[in-house]
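Feature request, filed as a ticket because there's no other form

It would be nice if the structure record came with a short human-readable summary line next to the tokens. Right now we just get the raw output. Example of a typical job, pasted below so the devs can see what we mean:
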Amino acid sequence: MDRLNVYKTHPSVSLPTFLTKQAACFDIACQTYGKIEFKGYNNFNSAFTRGMKNGNIYVGPHERVLIPTGLILDIPEGYSVRIHPRSGISLKQGLTLANSEGVIDADYVDELYILMYNLSDNGHMINNGDRIAQGEMIQMQKYALWEIFERPGQKSEREGGMGSTGINVKII
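Raw output as currently delivered:
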């Protein structure tokens, strides 16, 4: 079995956990452990630094913020860690990852921050210890990028580019 080593930047930080035996990903929590401020961008792309309230982080409507985890991942060479949104808070609160999926390379050895985006028109408080994202370690497949000088040919019955296979959603 492969191993992902995790360093806690503060003794009060909790380790990520697999919540069930069949969980494909481990849950990652917000860990503020005495931090005073956090960074973000508003819906006008203006940077801000905001203080925390009792160790919790307020995310305003349509804001993007860096949520601390207090974790440094020691990813084995030949692997990466993918960070995914948690479906429950995405559906119920409109909080998701601003970059859709985070990719942590094996040579990144600084604190892991989760780039959270509030899709909703309501502000949300992320509490210290809240599970905010999930991660999985993926083995990389090495490949070369190779320039070709002829356009690729048809590989299936598909005709057309993006959106050419249609949709199955009825528009009302």
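Something like this underneath would help us a lot:
The chain has one helix and 13 strands.
The chain has one domain: 5-139.
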